[in-house]
Design a protein that fits this description.
Blueprint (H helix, E strand, L loop, with lengths): L57 H15 L10 H10 L2
Length: about 90
């Protein structure tokens, strides 16, 4: 279950959050995402229509998952001895 609520942060930086009764009691994770402050026309196609948050495209999601798989040791990572070596490898990958 996800609940989104946009709030104004007061000068004292203290918030009181009223949680709807439909939400079960117990542990919860509160995630902070700053609300967008502008209507950038370049970002607009990538914003979620309800929350306004940026949503990664399929290529970005695949790259994130590949990095996580490397971190878990499921696929080997690559190490380079120089920036030029890394760029040369990037040029060969499609």
């Amino acid at each position: 279950m996800t609940i989104t609520q946009t709030v104004e942060i007061p000068e004292n930086h203290r918030l009181t959050i009223d949680v709807p009764r439909e939400v079960p009691a117990g542990r919860a994770e509160i995630v902070y995402f700053p609300a967008p402050v502008d209507d950038c026309p370049l970002c607009a196609p990538y914003r979620h229509p309800e929350t306004g948050r940026l949503v990664p495209n399929a290529e970005t999601i695949a790259a994130i998952e590949e990095g996580r798989a490397m971190r878990r040791g499921e696929i080997p990572g690559k190490l380079y001895t120089s920036f030029d070596e890394m760029l040369a490898d990037l040029d060969t990958d499609d």
